[in-house]
Amino acid sequence: SAIHNGKNGYIFEDGNYYDLVDKILLTIKNLEVLSKNALFIVKKYYSPEFVKENIIKSIIQVNKSYV
Predict the structure, then answer these.
(1) Which domain does 27 fall in, by range?
(2) Cα within 13 Å of Cα(58), Cβ side
(3) Count of structural domains, the chain
(4) What's the whole-model pTM score?
(5) Which residues have a Cβ under 8 Å from the Cβ of 2 and sit 6 or more positions away?
(6) How do residues 23-53 score in pLDDT, each as one tens digit?
């Protein structure tokens, strides 16, 4: 939803003027950052150690509640 300014650039929602190529590159860069962050989160929370730790914690909690 960018407004073309009649040249080779666009004005985007953030009010900034970008050459279309700049905007595409910026978007790609943002996506790379997002995917790196997502990968970090997935690696952290689905790492075998983390999962094992949580399973053990859950078992301990269940055992405590039956005592």
Answers:
(1) 3-66
(2) 6
(3) 1
(4) 0.40
(5) 10, 11, 12, 13, 23
(6) 788 888 889 888 888 888 888 778 888 888 8
